[in-house]
Design a protein that fits this description.
α1 packs parallel to α12 and α1 runs antiparallel to α13. The chain has 549 residues and is an alpha/beta fold.
């Protein structure tokens, strides 16, 4: 996970954005052996789905936000413990591993609670109840481990749930007045005291100083279901230590636990951590299982996600949270946008019709053979972006690259392109929202932000049907985005023309001025205009700049 580098296109990705990301991630893996993974910042459209299915390539997984997450920082893999271990065992583990908080988990690795050094200290300092050991249902094995003892009679699995803990320092006559059924009695090697405790129905006797227990006492204890534990400690030490055998669940915090998921964003949890007095916080994976602990210190220098951008270089078109990521490279064929980087990056920008053409060049420059599968993706991207060479953005390099890739992929360009565009333009059954966001981008000109969507079709009737859906939806989209202007291109591939829908004050006037149109018509029809990148956006940008002069 720490070494993963994401290769990702723009939001609302088109075929070039997806295919270039896949092909470039593979090239980087071949050249470096690194963990480069293609990702997508939006939904895959029907055209791209056709391409991926045709060449049997799995679609990149979706990445909605690239901010640093909990899984990107150092998580201390503090091992979880079971709730029935003793306070002494927990304390020893904390000292050995230099931690102040222990997570308590069940057999399914689910978090049940937390115990801190402060909780353990409180159990020593604030507890004066001589029945607390049985209230906590302390096990025989816990007492034996805590007192470093051995079982002389009884069952290791015994749970002590009644009675009090006391020291038998008096003579047997006085002992009979305060020993009750179920008590745990700490005593020495005196036969009479041991016998009295058993006869008074004590549940357990703890014999100190490593003293031996007679066969008679042992047999009598067995008959009376009384446990005998021998400890090498003296009476004072045994009495001081025995409460450390209490299981930690009795003192753990189990309610209102503050936990974080590996998928949580650092930006979101920082404020929560600052408001809580806790030093450490448990981390759960996507399935809700405990995996480790983090503290405020872990947030001081979080590792940024590493990313390579393809087919865009504008922040408004990038995956959310890009400002928190480390951009390593940008491979693009668009105008220079508003993106800023913290440190220098490898930036390859060429005035070509498609990013996939640049990727193909890089394969050739590095002497890497393009396999038929990758050739199919790259060729599809070029055909899509250049509208089968009809777009003014198309160069001789694009065309030559596409033809070479087509041969490798084993496809006939014209025939294949018709299938691809037919699959991509089958939009009549889609909702206006799906159509609108299939290829939508935002642009910035000075202080003005505007959005432009585009649909390509080989069928004018289909474009008319789409228009009927989009005209009313444009009003909603305009309000949702909060931009000054909104445009949508209905592009006919066959006759190389575009009808433009528009929303926003001054949007029609901008189009009229940019393309020298008749002011009297509400329909904006642009013959010979098919490229958003090379024809529409430059014309709008120039006009906006002139208006601001």
């Amino acid at each position: 996970m720490d070494n993963e580098i994401y290769v990702i296109g723009h939001i609302n990705p088109d075929t070039d954005s997806i295919c270039s990301a896949i092909a470039y991630a593979k090239l980087k893996r071949i050249l470096t052996g690194g963990e480069y993974k293609a990702k997508r910042a939006g939904q895959i459209n029907s055209e791209t789905r056709f391409v991926l299915d045709r060449f049997k390539v799995t679609a990149p997984s979706y990445l909605s936000d690239i901010r640093t997450q909990v899984k990107d920082i150092e998580i201390r893999r503090t091992e979880g413990v079971k709730k029935d271990i003793s306070l002494k065992t927990a304390w020893s583990y904390m000292r050995k591993n230099n931690v102040v908080t222990l997570p308590i988990i069940n057999q399914d690795n689910r978090l049940e609670g937390l115990i801190t050094i402060g909780d353990i200290a409180k159990s020593y300092m604030d507890v004066y109840d001589n029945r607390i050991l049985t209230k906590a249902e302390t096990s025989c094995i816990n007492i034996i481990e805590t007192l470093e003892g051995e079982l002389a009679a009884g069952d290791l699995e015994e749970i002590f749930a009644d009675g009090k803990v006391l020291i038998a320092a008096a003579n047997p006559d006085l002992m009979e007045t305060y020993i009750e059924k179920g008590d745990i009695v700490i005593l020495g090697n005196r036969y009479e005291s041991q016998l009295c405790a058993i006869e008074m129905n004590a549940k357990c006797i703890i014999v100190c100083d490593g003293a031996k227990v007679s066969k008679t006492i042992t047999k009598l204890a067995q008959n009376n279901k009384c446990t005998i534990i021998r400890t090498p400690f003296d009476t004072f030490t045994a009495a001081r230590l025995i409460n450390q055998s209490i299981p930690i669940w009795f003192f753990m915090t189990a309610q209102e636990l503050i936990t974080f998921s590996t998928e949580d964003y650092i930006e979101d949890i920082r404020e929560i951590m600052a408001k809580k007095r806790y030093r450490d916080f448990p981390v759960l994976n996507k399935d809700g299982c405990y995996i480790g602990m983090i503290s405020r210190r872990n947030l001081l220098n979080p590792k940024r996600k590493k990313v390579i951008l393809v087919d865009h270089n504008e922040k408004s078109q990038a995956v959310d949270g890009l400002e928190d990521a480390e951009i390593l490279e940008i491979i693009d064929h668009h105008r220079l946008g508003s993106l800023e980087t913290i440190s220098p990056v490898f930036f390859r920008n060429q005035p070509l019709g498609c990013t996939a053409t640049i990727i193909y060049q890089m394969y050739r420059e590095n002497g890497i053979e393009v396999e038929p599968q990758m050739a199919g993706l790259l060729c599809s991207a070029i055909l899509s972006d250049t509208l089968v060479y009809r777009s003014p953005t198309c160069t001789d390099i694009d065309r030559t690259s596409s033809e070479e890739l087509a041969k490798i992929a084993g496809i006939q360009v014209e025939e294949y392109a018709k299938e691809m565009f037919a699959a991509g333009s089958n939009l009549t059954s889609k909702s206006p929202e799906e159509i609108f966001y299939q290829d939508f981008k935002k642009f910035t000109a000075g202080d003005l932000i505007f959005g432009v969507g585009q649909i390509n079709s080989m069928n004018q009737e289909e474009l008319e049907a789409i228009k009927e859906k989009l005209v009313p939806y444009m009003q909603k989209a305009f309000k949702d985005h909060g931009v000054e202007m909104l445009f949508f291109m209905l592009t006919n591939i066959i006759d190389s023309s575009t009808e433009l829908l528009y929303q926003g004050a001054g949007s029609k006037e901008l189009l009229v001025n940019a393309f020298k149109l008749d002011k009297g018509s509400d329909i904006i029809y642009l013959r010979g205009v098919v490229s958003r990148k090379k024809q529409l956006i430059p014309a709008l940008m120039i006009t906006l700049q002139q208006d601001n002069v």
